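Technical annex, item 7. During the second reporting period the consortium partners agreed on a shared format for inverse folding records so that results from different sites could be compared directly. Each record opens with the tokenized structure and is followed by the designed sequence. A conforming record, contributed by the partner at site C, is shown below for reference.
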């Protein structure tokens, strides 16, 4: 269930929008723009004090069913410092992203049965920083190395700030609140914090500003809000019912809200989401279907036609109104793409 929670929490007409190309940190073009990070740098990460004496040079990215961290580092131009990346989906709303991730070293790491990098393989990379998308990524119960073990070896660790409460044994109240209120702003916060740690604050500000500009340019919603269903048909393994994985709450609701819609399954708990079945889908009033793509061979049109045939009572089935998203719907640098696509579909639905 840990992987289910991580994916559910941590994930038609398609544009070619992509993250602007970033110069690598070593070129100095990005690092020299904007404020400079002063080292030693001390931050609070999930209630743990972490001190960097310099910008990290050997990073291991744990999996956590995420691509937020590797994509954010690529957007900031610091991916050359990753020695072992275990994050990959094989499909992206940025037409250049899959190839960029493929170019990042994996260090030969192999995930265990909990879909995480085992502690021995982490240590074998001699990292100076290990990043996890969620607190549970450092849980020894799933074969991972703990943050205390890393600290004893002189290795820093970092958890994506909005996910400090996810998988934590005793999360701070403020982390629980932050986790419950995850939004597109959480993606911007991740970029900003990584920009500070890696001394590319100017680049981080640029990426965030460009995303905000894209969001501000979208048309304002008018009239009653359309009900939007976001379903990932190839993620049936992430549910207890065999139905397509349905996303709701947190950042997912925020993306749909910014697009001018309302999530047909918004506000549900993680457990309720994984238990959604065909009967619940049939009872939903869906104006816009958003097909989530997870595997490289996922076919949005095919999936949409199948769902429309299965649930002909949906208004979306009658108007054939759908779009598709993949990684832009999760935490990461591409949220503006998801908002734009869903906005286009919402307005097309009238």
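Designed sequence (site C submission):
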């Amino acid at each position: 269930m840990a992987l289910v929670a991580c994916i559910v929490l941590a994930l038609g007409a398609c544009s070619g929008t992509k993250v602007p190309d970033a110069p690598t940190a070593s070129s100095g073009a990005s690092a020299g723009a904007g404020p400079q990070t002063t080292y030693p740098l001390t931050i609070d990460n999930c209630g743990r004090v972490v001190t960097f004496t310099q910008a990290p040079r050997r990073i291991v990215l744990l999996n956590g069913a995420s691509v937020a961290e590797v994509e954010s580092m690529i957007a900031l131009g610091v991916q050359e410092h990753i020695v072992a990346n275990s994050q990959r989906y094989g499909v992206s709303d940025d037409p250049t992203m899959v190839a960029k991730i493929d170019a990042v070293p994996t260090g030969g790491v192999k995930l265990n049965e909990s879909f995480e990098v085992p502690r021995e393989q982490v240590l074998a990379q001699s990292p100076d920083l290990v990043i996890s998308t969620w607190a549970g990524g450092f849980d020894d119960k799933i074969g991972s190395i703990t943050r205390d073990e890393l600290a004893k070896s002189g290795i820093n660790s970092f958890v994506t700030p909005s996910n400090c409460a996810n998988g934590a044994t005793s999360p701070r109240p403020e982390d629980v609140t932050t986790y419950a209120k995850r939004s597109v702003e959480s993606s911007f916060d991740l970029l900003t914090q990584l920009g500070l740690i890696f001394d590319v604050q100017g680049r981080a500000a640029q990426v965030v500003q460009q995303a905000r500009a894209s969001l501000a340019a979208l048309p304002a919603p008018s009239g009653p809000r359309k009900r939007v269903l976001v379903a990932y048909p190839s993620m049936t393994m992430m549910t207890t019912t065999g139905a397509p994985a349905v996303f709701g709450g947190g950042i997912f609701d925020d993306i749909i809200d910014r697009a001018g819609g309302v999530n047909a399954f918004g506000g549900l708990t993680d457990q309720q989401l994984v238990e959604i079945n065909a009967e619940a889908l049939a009872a939903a009033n869906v104006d816009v279907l958003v097909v989530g793509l997870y595997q490289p061979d996922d076919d949005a049109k095919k999936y949409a036609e199948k769902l429309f045939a299965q649930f002909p009572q949906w208004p979306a089935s009658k108007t054939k109104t759908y779009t598709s998203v993949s990684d832009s719907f999760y935490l990461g640098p591409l949220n503006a793409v998801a908002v734009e696509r869903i906005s286009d579909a919402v307005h097309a639905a009238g």
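The chain has 14 helices and eleven strands. The mean pLDDT is 91. All partners now use this format for quarterly exchanges.
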